[in-house]
Design a protein that fits this description.
Layout lengths: L2 H14 L5 H8 L19 H15 L4 H14 L4 H17 L3 H22 L6 H15 L9 H13 L8 H17 L3 H14 L1 H8 L3
Length: 224
């Protein structure tokens, strides 16, 4: 079942049984504990002042949740000014999913989460159209992967995160990324291998991650 169908089913059930299932829905979506400190980097340099401002606001919000609303406002303004820019869209989508984490009402959580997922997917669709810029693809996939990795499993984003991480690993720009960013990729691949009961593969990926940046690797591995 797709995440959208899951969303509709849960939303319909909640409307029919608002009090009985309030705690259930809240528990599902409150698990979106997004973007740990090892995963908040702005992937890539931007000469455009608007994109530079957006990525800075994104990183600040990841470190201080109290700045989330301000960062989302920056993202809204940026997307409004450049609606077909995949970088602006993917960051706005990621920030929307963080609003799902912080929203109190469960239907708001689900709405923010759905909107965020849609925007991140749209960003990759735009970035994948010719002419393809490998640096843009790298940034979009990194943000989408590390956001999707922390979305509750019921929404089926694990395969999306794995696909993005695999693509990032083969991207020509991967080796030029910061050590902690490379370690995040290897460590999350280790987590997914562990979840798929591929112990040897998980051990190899984790070993590589720790060799690159042990602190980041261990932080991600703790989320398995």
């Amino acid at each position: 079942m797709s995440y959208f169908n899951v969303f509709l089913s849960i939303h319909s059930y909640l409307c029919d049984n608002p009090m009985t299932h309030l705690k259930f829905i809240k528990n599902i979506v409150v698990g979106v504990s997004l973007l740990a400190s090892s995963a908040v980097q702005a992937y890539g340099e931007h000469s455009d002042p608007a994109l530079k401002h957006l990525t800075q606001a994104f990183a600040e919000a990841a470190k201080d949740p109290g700045k989330l609303d301000a960062a989302f406002s920056v993202a809204e303004q940026t997307v409004k000014a450049m609606p077909n820019n995949p970088i602006a869209l993917v960051y706005k989508g990621s920030l929307a999913t963080q609003r799902a984490r912080d929203a109190w009402m469960p239907w708001n959580k689900l709405s923010y989460l759905k909107d965020g997922i849609d925007m991140m997917d749209q960003a990759l669709d735009i970035a994948s159209r010719a002419p393809v810029n490998p640096d843009t693809i790298l940034q979009v996939r990194m943000v989408r992967a590390l956001t999707s990795a922390r979305i509750p499993a019921i929404f089926g984003r694990g395969s999306v995160a794995q696909g993005d991480l695999t693509n990032v690993l083969s991207n020509p720009g991967f080796k030029g990324m910061k050590a902690q960013d490379q370690a995040s990729v290897y460590a999350w691949l280790a987590v997914y291998a562990h979840r798929d009961n591929q112990a040897d593969k998980a051990a190899d990926q984790l070993k590589t991650a720790r060799a690159v940046d042990k602190v980041t690797a261990d932080a991600v591995w703790a989320e398995r």
